[in-house]
């Protein structure tokens, strides 16, 4: 999937006041009713703010998805380093 042309979001109503977004088969965020509007959250739980309408909150989720980084391009975790400076095992003791 290209960041320039992401697949469109598909919105589903999960509860009376909760809407969940998916892009293809991936979770893309949700919108839920809050005391002062509609709360939007990104796919990793990022708080995207409180909005005055469901449409505005859904647009915030869609806009965050376009600006966000591609999950495939995440940097790998560095190897652990022993006290001597040599690279050690990644897992714990056996």
**Average pLDDT, to the nearest integer?**
78
What sort of overall outline do the alpha carbons produce when their principal axes are compared?
elongated
Number of distinct beta strands: 5
Could you say which structural class the secondary elements and strand pairing correspond to?
Answer: alpha+beta
Compressed to H and E, one letter per element, the order equals EEEEEH
Largest sheet: 5 strands, antiparallel
Which percent bin holds the helix content?
Answer: 10-25%
Rg result: 19 Å
Strand numbers in spatial order across the main sheet: 1-2-3-4-5
| Poorly predicted segments | 69-73
Report, as a whole number of angstroms, the end-to-end distance.
40 Å
How many helices?
Answer: 1
Portion in beta strands: 25-35%
Descriptive report:
The protein has one helix at residues 54-67, and strands spanning 10-15, 18-23, 26-34, 37-41, 47-51. The longest helix is centred in the middle third of the chain and has 14 residues, at 54-67. The chain is 15% helix and 33% strand. The chain has 94 residues and is of the alpha+beta class. Strand 2 (18-23) and strand 3 form a beta hairpin. Residues 60-94 are annotated as: Disordered. Residues 74-86 have a biased composition (Basic residues).
Topology, pairings included?
Layout: E1 10-15, E2 18-23, E3 26-34, E4 37-41, E5 47-51, H1 54-67
Antiparallel strand pairs: 1-2, 2-3, 3-4, 4-5
Q: How would you describe this structure in keywords?
A:
alpha+beta, 5-stranded antiparallel β-sheet, 1 helix
């Amino acid at each position: 999937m290209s960041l320039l042309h992401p697949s469109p979001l598909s919105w589903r109503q999960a509860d009376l006041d909760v809407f969940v977004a998916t892009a293809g088969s991936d979770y893309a965020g949700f919108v839920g009713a809050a005391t002062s509007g509609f709360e939007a959250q990104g796919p990793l739980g990022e708080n995207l703010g409180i909005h005055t309408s469901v449409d505005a909150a859904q647009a915030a989720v869609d806009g965050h998805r376009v600006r966000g980084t591609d999950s495939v391009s995440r940097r790998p975790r560095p190897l652990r380093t022993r006290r001597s400076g040599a690279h050690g095992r990644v897992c714990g003791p056996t």
